[in-house]
Specification:
single chain; 509 residues; alpha/beta; five-stranded antiparallel β-sheet; 17 helices; 13 strands; 45% helix; 13% strand; globular
């Protein structure tokens, strides 16, 4: 094996070929720690083993979307009598002790945000969703800094935080299948983003987490089918064998944040039965997936989010009830969605009380539905939500809540509210005579810009705001709505050019 270091980065050749872009500015130490010869070999072997199957998964997604558009046939549950649904005996393996009680996790924590990560490690939360996906802007700088921060946390290199065996468990969330890592080439192809993230995290942290009975634990984003769960399971098994750790050591929570996956929850659990840490409700991405999958059908468009996207609506309540029932019937944990609200700073203010009351009301619905935990973004919500679980549940989890009362049909999952807004179908705004059009949306965007610009004094902040407005209009006015905003923004010109300019400016400093 020949390894070369140059101004362009790392090049390994003969007999393998792997190229890594040079270190982002100021991250040379972390870069050198991560990209060792052994790790590069591991990444090469991982990616070449599964690269073709990743491509097949993405091609299958395209096929399913085209089929939905051309036929109009809606998804349904498998009626195959030989399927895993008809076998009532199988269960997932029990989770380790540290996963049995996860009432409140911190969610969407971008690990490149060192200050927030350290606060989370010192918090009373049971877990931390360490997010390399939607909660993180996936620049090369952020990925390297974030992975190195996880490395330091796992190896107890941060001062004034608990050791990893006592800190909240790290639930590592690699990027979803649709993302690539353009800064690494393996055998002439850009690396799949999730394999880049998983490979580095697993190679450097897997054994240490296992030795401390604190992992390795993962979140799996945007899984759409049982075949994708099977691929992840095979990746886990391969990594366990390669790193010589016991089979089944890796545990993963699957986010059911795609409407097609809601029809295959049982099959997804079965594929991951040796590695499952349960299923999770992700209502915002789940609701957005309705636009992604059925966007060309005027009967299936996302409604007014503030009125119709909440767990009181039948289509979302059915989805949550089915997730809890399916998970618990198979011995798996079921966790609820994210509390995105932020608490006002003054705990005695009326606004603070309003937020607490609203969040308590929303999360009580999930607790009553039988969830074993949920996620908060604001660290100040951890203790109030833990008290809610303590008051209204018994024990570490609610696996005993089997929900025999639940009878969810395909129609229940697809019973979308009837008021819609979207440019493509030129619909009328609720209670108004206005028609949603390109002109209306552009004028609204400009109006918001004029309101926000005075609040951002610096030129750089104003430029970021302008970039955000440009990206918004670019997406909503396209002929075809992007399947994933993350993929589109990372590979198309506006976002990419903006961050390339920022990185060039940093390099000159």
């Amino acid at each position: 094996m020949s390894v070369q270091l140059s101004e362009q980065g790392i090049i390994m050749s003969s007999p393998v070929c792997i190229e890594v872009q040079c270190s982002p500015p100021s991250l040379e130490k972390g870069y050198k720690t991560l990209f060792t010869d052994d790790c590069l070999q591991f990444l090469h072997d991982l990616i070449t083993t599964f690269d073709q199957r990743v491509d097949q998964i993405l091609q299958m997604r395209v096929f399913r979307k085209v089929n939905l558009d051309l036929t109009g046939v809606l998804p349904s549950f498998s009626k195959d009598p030989s399927s895993v649904r008809s076998d009532t005996t199988w269960r997932v393996l029990p989770v380790p002790e540290r996963l049995q009680r996860r009432h409140v996790d911190i969610g969407d924590l971008a690990p490149c945000d060192t200050e927030r990560l350290l606060r989370a490690l010192k918090s009373p939360a049971q877990g931390i969703q360490v997010d390399f996906d939607d909660g993180n802007c996936p620049t090369f700088y952020n990925q390297i800094k974030g992975i190195h921060n996880v490395y330091k946390a796992v190896h107890n290199m941060f001062s004034d935080v608990p050791p990893i065996s006592q800190a909240p468990v790290l639930m590592l969330r690699p990027r979803a299948w649709n993302m690539i890592e353009s800064n690494m080439m393996v055998e002439g192809k850009q690396a799949p983003g999730p394999l880049f993230d998983f490979g580095l995290l697993m190679f450097h942290c897997g054994k240490t987490l296992l030795d401390n009975k604190s992992g390795p634990f993962f979140y799996l984003s945007k899984v759409e089918s049982y075949m994708e769960a099977r691929l992840w399971n095979d990746i886990f098994t391969w990594a366990e064998q390669k790193l010589v750790i016991p089979l089944g050591s890796i545990k993963a929570t699957v986010l059911i944040e795609n409407i097609l996956a809601s029809f295959e929850m049982e099959e997804i659990l079965y594929e991951l039965r040796d590695h499952s840490a349960g299923l999770n409700c992700g209502i915002w991405d789940y609701s957005a997936s309705i636009v992604n999958k059925f966007g060309n059908n005027p009967a299936f468009l996302l409604p007014d989010r503030s009125k119709y996207v909440n767990m009181q609506k039948h289509f979302l309540r059915s989805y949550m009830d089915l997730l809890v029932q399916t998970s618990h019937r198979r011995g798996a944990l079921a966790t609820g969605g994210m509390v995105a609200q932020l608490l006002p700073q003054d705990p005695y203010s009326e606004a603070y009380k309003t937020v607490i009351d609203m969040v308590t009301r929303q999360k009580m619905q999930e607790i009553q539905a039988g969830v074993d935990g949920f996620i908060v973004y604001d660290l100040n919500l951890i203790e109030p939500m833990q008290k809610l679980f303590k008051l209204h549940t018994l024990g570490d989890n609610q696996l005993h809540q089997l929900r025999p009362d639940v009878r969810v049909t395909a129609d229940d999952l697809l019973s979308i509210p009837s008021v819609w807004q979207w440019i493509r179908h030129r619909t009328q705004l609720e209670g108004e005579s206005k028609i949603v059009s390109r002109q209306l949306v552009t004028e609204l965007a400009q109006q918001v810009m004029m309101e926000l610009l005075p609040l951002h004094g610096s030129d750089s902040a104003a430029q970021m705001l302008q970039t955000a407005a440009s990206m918004f209009l670019e997406v909503v006015l396209r002929r075809d709505f992007p399947e994933f905003l993350t993929t589109y923004l990372c590979q198309e010109h506006t976002f990419l050019h903006y961050h390339m300019a920022v990185q060039e400016k940093q390099a000159k400093l």
